[in-house]
Amino acid sequence: MHRLARLDHQYVWHPFTQMRDWLRREPIVIVEGQGAVLGDVHGRRFLDANSSIWTNLHGHAHPRINAAIRRQLGRVAHSSALGFANEPASLLASRLVAAARPIRAAEAGADLRKVFFSDDGSTAMEVALKLAYETARRKQGAIAPRFLSLKGAYHGDTVGAVSLGHIDLFHRAYKGLLFRTGKVMAPYCYRCPFNRAKPERTDARLARKCDWECVGQVEKTLDQGQRRGKPFSSFVVEPLMQGAAGMIPQPQGWLKKVAALCRERGISIIADEVMTGFGRMGVSDPAANAGARAPLFACQQESVVPDYLVLAKGLTGGYMPMAATLTTQGVFDAFLGEYEEFKTFFHGHSFTGNQLGAAAALASLDLLQSAVEIRRRLRLQRLLERELQRLWSLAHVGDVRQVGLVAGIELVRDWKTRQPFALQERAGIRVCDAMAKRGVLTRPIGSVVVLLPPYCTTEAQLVAMVDALIYGIKAL
Ligand SMILES: *Cc1c(COP(=O)(O)O)cnc(C)c1O
Hints:
The chain is α/β, with parallel strands linked by helices and 476 residues long. It folds into 2 domains: 3-61 and 383-474, Aspartate Aminotransferase, domain 1; 76-369, Type I PLP-dependent aspartate aminotransferase-like (Major domain) (Aspartate Aminotransferase, domain 2, 3-Layer(aba) Sandwich). It is 37% helix and 16% strand. It has 18 helices and 17 strands. The strands form 4 sheets. The protein has a 7-stranded mixed beta sheet, with helices on both faces. A 4-stranded mixed beta sheet has the order 1-2-3-16. Strands 13, 14, 15 and 17 form a 4-stranded antiparallel beta sheet that branches. It binds pyridoxal-5'-phosphate.
């Protein structure tokens, strides 16, 4: 075993990992990266098929991002946002506000104007949570503001973010630490009890037969809260696709409909775009969007302006840990007052507004908004669509769901019955292990295999990713 692998085994505790399994075999020790390729200590090459857990956008060691970080490093790496402003964070905040502007006409008056920086998805969600809680108390007189989120939701691992989540497997253990939040049915066409369509060899959203019962359930839950004297103040949602829940996409129009329900009732919307942000959701109609300003955020695709937009993973192109919570002038104003009124937002982190992170994020935004890169993403989105068609011939493939540059492939015992694999069978893990042997790295979510390629992925690399996936599924 390599010396570094031994040290890892001896000292490092890995996230979301059964360490007994981990210690059974030599880990892949990554020492370098170039574009969509990662290299390990033994000189082996792997395709990074989940963009290093959904963080990387433009590939590894991108010359523009590396140069931006180096340039900033030559000046100053970090200074505190407690008491001081800095150059890249000021520039970045203005760029994020501009990028989040609606693409098409949205509700009048709604826009995001202020940026609160933090370090990762979880902390950015905590910021949104605290701001929403306090704003509901100050502006609407709510005594104990309540949150509603979707079944299967994942919004991070800090205690507040866990409270907003509903993944039993992760969250059960900490129940005593958490506060209560409401949950409501998420649209999940493939396994929707209201979907009357028989299994077909196509994305379940397209073949579905229903009357939008999932929207009805949100309406019912919101109204129940109101009737019982415990109204919800905020609705928390990953727009267009729930990530860690299993790459579960929403049928087109769902987001707009539930957002309208919230607006009618004065309920604020927290959009967790930690996974979906920065172009990951592609464009819903590539042909129509080719000329327009490309949407960077999922909300923009359905002309929804949330009260809180939460960004992390891809913010810096995946190079530095940094996050941001965007919000409205109205929320900002609720915290204004004389010093001695103590209306200040009492929250912050040592590395808030980190200069290296902000410099990387600015370089990443330049790339994201360049015409060449927009065309490249469109090409990759279409290529992914084409390549995924190859999976439908496999009996263990139940659902193939793509939104933009993300795909979730749900493995089942038999596609004709949608019969799932039991979690203990580790179907997803087995497929991903087989893919790793073929030089393709990704991580499953239960029985769902994720393909989430960096935007720089070439056609040959994408084909290789899908080849490895097919090989893995056939080996099941
Ligand atoms: C990853 C993720 C988070 C948590 O982000 P961290 O940076 O891991 O704390 C929150 N929400 C969503 C949707 C995520 O995908």
